[in-house]
Amino acid sequence: MKKSAMARVGRTTLWILPAVAVVVGLAVAMPWLKLQNPVIAKGLGITGVVFLMGYSLYVTQRQQRRLDEVQVAMQGFANSRGWIWGGMATVLLLLVPPVMDGLVAFVNEFGTGSAGTTTALSVRLAFFFGVSLVMMVQALCVSVAAIVWWRRMGGADDAP
Amino acid sequence: MKNRIRVLRAEKGWSQAELAERVRVSRNSINAIENGRFDPSLPLAFRIADSFGLSVEQVFNKTDA
Predict the structure, then answer these.
(1) Residue A58's domain spans which residues?
(2) Partner residue facing B29 (CB), from A71, A152, A156
(3) Do A59 and A73 share a domain, yes or no?
(4) The domain at B2-57 falls in which architecture?
(5) Residue B11, CA distances (Å) to A8, A156, B52, B56 in order
(6) Does this complex have an ipTM over 0.95?
(7) A residues 121-150 near B, CB within 8 Å?
(8) Consecutive sets of 10 residues in chain B, 65 residues long: mean pLDDT of each?
(9) Residue A155 C-alpha from the chain's centroid
């Protein structure tokens, strides 16, 4: 790998790291949070989510400042397609019975420790993970749409 | 819109990356413009033409002209 490519990967990793740290931190702290005062637990959860949203906006704004006009057009194309494709892909994904059953078992297990027991916490977690799933699939679809755009734009030709 | 960027680059011996650096856009963007897949804005068209020391008309022309 070229030095510039490695530097880019390193920079991207550093930018993503705070968001990953918060998500992993909240997931790891879940058993501890369950034992805490609900107000403190909810407060920490809300703080984490607000941080993630604010950080995402900050990173997006920063990245957009460096885009040239072709890249801005690409982003417009990718966003307009990716968000819709992502929403539809998530619905289709959830229509597959093993996926839905797996997700239900996952939130039950995560919330109550038993795959077959549903509580109010499981439902809350289901909402949280459901919205997170939609956003992740949409982000993936935006990336796919960006690749589609660049292929339409002529790929990676570099004739001297 | 058609353009002569590929020919002009070849004459100067520049790669797409070199031209991209001169006009402050990404190499992929130069590729898209060069292949006629993306029409640049007027300021960018002027920057590209300036980098070759030519006028915009000498670099870009209408497809149906």
Answers:
(1) 1-66
(2) A71
(3) no
(4) Orthogonal Bundle (1.10)
(5) 32, 21, 10, 17
(6) no
(7) 150
(8) 93 94 92 91 95 94 68
(9) 27
